[in-house]
Amino acid sequence: MRVNWNYIRFAGLLLLTVFLYAFASHRNSVRLVDKVAIQFKDESTPFVTRETVDKLLIQSKGKVTGMPKEKLALNEMELRVKSHPTIKNADVYVTMAGTVGVAIEQRKPIARVHGNTSFYIDQEGEEIPLSKNFSARVPIINGITKKDIPILTELILFIKKDEFLNKHIIGVNKKKNNQYILIPRKLDYKILLGDIHNLDSKLTNYKAFYQKAQKDKTLDVYQLINLKYTNQVVCKKG
At residue 36, what are phi and psi to the nearest 5 degrees? Predict the structure, then answer.
C-alpha cells in the first residue's frame, strides 16, 4: 500500500501546532502580573491620581502585581474604576507580557457650583466632586438647585463654544423667577440675561455693545447691562 506522505506531514504539523498553542496558552495563563500601566486620555484635569486607580484595581487577595494572569477579574476591576465619580470611562486589560493596562478618560468640568454642597458639572450635566488634587478654572455658579442643572448646562455650553464669551464670562448667578446674571471678567458691571431663551440673539447683542463701548472707552461707566428685551441692550450707569 502506498503511503500518502502529504497527509502524514499535514497531520504532524497540525499536532505540532496544537501542542505549541496549548503550551503557549499554559505559559500565558500562569504568567504573573509584573506591573500596572495607567494611561490618561487627557491629563489636563487630573482629578484622580494613579495611586487612587491602583487602589481601585486591588482585588480581595491583595495587589494586582504578582498575581497569576488567569486569576484577574478584569470585568470587576474595570467596573470599580468606572464607578469613581471623576472617571467617565475606563478600559482594563492585560497584555501577553503580564502588564495590566488601564486606559482612563476623566470627566471634564465646565462649571463649579457653589452652595450648601459645592461640586463641578461636566458637559452631560453630571456632578463631579471637588478634588484635593486639582482645581479647575471654570465659571462659578451661585443660586441654583440641582433641578436647574440641565438649564445651566445648556447656558454654559453655549458660552463655551464662543471664543469671546468663554474668555469673558467667569460666573453665573441665578436670581428669582429664573433670571440669570452673567459676571464678566475684570469689569464692574453685571449682565442681566433674563431667562435662557433666545441666547444667540441676546449674546450677539451683548458682543456688539461690548465692541462699541470698548471703542468709545465707556465700559467702566456702566453698572448693569440688561439683555432681557428683544433686539436691544438697556444700560444702567453707575
Answer: -120, 130
